[in-house]
Amino acid sequence: MESVLIVDDDTAVLGVVSRMLSGAGYQNYTASSASAAEKLVEEHKIDIMLVDIVMPERGGLEFIMKEYRSNPKAKTIIMSGNVNLASDSLKILAEQFGVKSLIQKPFTKEELIDRIANLG
Questions:
Q1: Of these four, 14, 35, 86, 113, which has the most CB atoms within 10 Å of its CB?
Q2: How many structural domains comprise the chain?
C-alpha cells in the first residue's frame, strides 16, 4: 500500500482529502504546515506527496524543493485553489523539482485517484 502525505494549511481540505484517500485504500498522513510535513517525512516512508502551493508559514514549492533534494524519487502532486496551475512557468519550475502532476481545487475523489494512479 502506498503512503500519501497531504500538506495543506486548510484543515477542512486535509480532512476531506484524507477520507478520499483512505476510502481508496491509501495510507495517509496529514500536515497543516511545511514544518509539520518535514517531521512526517523524517518519521515515515512517504511514496506520494500531495502539496498545496499557498501556505502562510512557508509555501509548498519551497517545501517541495527541499524534499526533492533529499528524496528525488518521491512522487509529488501540486494542488491549489488560488494559483493558476495551467501557467507554463509554474509547470516548468515544478517539473524541475520532480512534480509529476498538478490538480486544481476543488477536485473530486475520482480526479484525485486518477492523478495518483497515473503517476507512473
A1: 14
A2: 1
Burial 1-15 (b: 16+ CB within 10 A, else e): eebbbbbbbeeebbe
**Cis-peptide, bond into residue 106, ω within 30° of zero:** yes
pLDDT digits (tens, 9 = 90+) for 108-118: 999 999 999 99
Q: What are phi and psi of 87, to 5 degrees?
A: -60, 125
CATH of the domain at 7: 3.40.50.2300
Cα distance between residue 50 and residue 30, in whole Å: 10
Q: What is the pLDDT of residues 76-105, one digit of tens each?
A: 999 998 877 778 887 888 888 889 999 999
State the Cα–Cα distance between residues 18 and 56, nearest whole angstrom. 21
HEC string for 5-70:
EEECCCHHHHHHHHHHHHHCCCEEEEECCHHHHHHHHHHCCCCEEEEECCCCCCCHHHHHHHHHHH
Give the domain extent around 110.
3-117
